[in-house]
């Protein structure tokens, strides 16, 4: 997967959001949307979702039972309509604090998934913050990237 870039769109009163064409192209005709521990949503292609759930299945059930319920229980299968919109469930909208209207949502490509955040959220990682860039640089050096 090579999901890259940042895009913004609006969420309408019916909880429909227009997915950026580039992400729809890379994710495929159907994909999975679920919660992310950072209080945003994560979007996976069906192949990436399969890898993710296989990893969960490989761990001791007693250790990941709550994780599986949380991640899978709030997940939804999504197929964009003819206009490229997806209707999000009420639970996903509430979890990520998405609001219909002009403020909209921000899509961030993260390589193997897309994250959906409320536009302008202070929780969106500030990738241009000098302190954050220094932290990222240190991590990259530590991991030889």
Tell me what the structure shows.
With 145 residues, the protein is α+β, with helices and mostly antiparallel strands. 36% of the residues lie in helices and 28% in strands. The protein is built from five helices and eight strands. Strands 1-7-8-4-3-5 form a six-stranded antiparallel sheet. It has a two-stranded antiparallel ribbon with strand order 2-6. Strand 3 and strand 4 form a beta hairpin. The radius of gyration is 16 Å and the shape is globular. The two termini are 19 Å apart. 24% of the residues are buried. The model has no long low-confidence stretch (mean pLDDT 89).
User: In total, how many beta strands?
Assistant: 8
Secondary-structure element order, N to C: EEHEEHHEEHEEH
Indicate the percent of residues in helices.
25-40%
Structural Rg? 16 Å
Question: How would you sum up the global shape?
Answer: globular
Major beta sheet, strand line-up: 1-7-8-4-3-5
* Overall pLDDT level: 89
Beta fraction of the residues?
25-35%
Structural class: alpha+beta
CA distance, first residue to last residue = 19 Å
Q: How large is the count of helical segments?
A: 5
Largest sheet: 6 strands, antiparallel
Low-confidence stretches: none
Key terms:
two-stranded antiparallel ribbon; alpha+beta; 145 residues; single chain; 5 helices
Annotate the secondary structure layout:
Layout: E1 6-11, E2 16-18, H1 21-27, E3 31-36, E4 40-45, H2 46-58, H3 61-73, E5 76-78, E6 85-87, H4 90-95, E7 101-109, E8 114-118, H5 130-142
Antiparallel strand pairs: 1-7, 2-6, 3-4, 3-5, 4-8, 7-8
């Amino acid at each position: 997967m090579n999901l890259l870039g940042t895009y913004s769109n609006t969420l309408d009163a019916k909880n429909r959001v227009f997915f950026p064409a580039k992400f729809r192209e890379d994710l495929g005709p159907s994909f999975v949307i679920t919660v992310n521990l950072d209080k945003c949503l994560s979007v996976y292609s069906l192949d990436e979702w399969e890898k993710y759930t296989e990893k969960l299945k490989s761990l001791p059930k007693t250790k990941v039972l709550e994780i599986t319920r949380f991640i899978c229980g709030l997940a939804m299968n999504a197929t964009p309509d003819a206009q490229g919109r997806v209707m999000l469930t009420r639970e996903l909208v509430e979890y990520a604090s998405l609001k219909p209207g002009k403020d909209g949502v921000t899509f961030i490509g993260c390589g193997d998934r897309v994250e959906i955040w409320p536009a302008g959220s202070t929780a969106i990682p500030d990738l241009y913050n000098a302190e954050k860039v220094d932290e990222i640089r240190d991590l990259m050096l530590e991991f030889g990237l």
